[in-house]
Design a protein that fits this description.
Rossmann fold, 3-stranded parallel beta sheet, two-stranded antiparallel ribbon, 5 helices, globular
């Protein structure tokens, strides 16, 4: 919510978020991006979540640096994701994101441990703080670029803008 609304919520429940669209500017173009925030929970019926997975280009695995349990849980979740996607031969791109990097004194997951996990996924690793807005813009930029490349193979070249004699844009 920090990136989309520039708001920090002390308590945020992604289960109530049905999906959010936003437009992102990159390479002189505007991209419509849909975010489906989905928290996997043990014991829940996973069928709706499976449906989300079947239409994704990028999965961001998110955990808290202050919770070893959340880090271990994303590993279990990743196994489930790969199991679901194996049946349809879909291989999305992944990003690893550690939240609450402003809580360094409460850190339970080392940067090295997370980096090694990201390396095993052949992906990038971000530490962010929604509270202090650290690395939020960089993360979303990476999300948009990765999702686009995953779907279309490469990022589009920058559009050269031309202005005619009257100051009107020609693209």
């Amino acid at each position: 919510m920090r990136y989309l609304q520039n708001v920090y919520y002390e308590i945020y429940d992604p289960e109530i978020d049905e999906g959010t669209y936003f437009y992102y500017q990159a390479a002189g173009r505007s991209f419509k991006v849909e975010i489906l925030a989905d928290a996997f929970e043990d014991g829940e019926d996973r069928k709706p979540k499976s449906a989300y997975l079947l239409h994704t280009n990028l999965i961001v695995l998110v955990y808290s640096i202050a919770s070893l349990e959340s880090f271990e849980y994303i590993k279990k979740t990743l196994e489930y994701i790969k199991f679901v996607l194996k049946s349809v031969s879909l291989q999305p791109s992944y990003l690893l994101c550690a939240t609450q990097c402003d809580k360094e004194e409460e850190r339970k997951v080392s940067q090295n441990e997370a980096f090694l996990f990201a390396e095993s996924l052949e992906t990038r690793f971000f530490e962010v703080s929604s509270k202090t807005n650290i690395n939020i813009k960089d993360l979303f930029e990476e999300i948009v670029v990765r999702a686009y490349v995953q779907k279309y193979g490469s990022f589009p070249p920058k559009i050269e803008k031309k202005v005619n004699k009257k100051g009107c844009l020609i693209s």
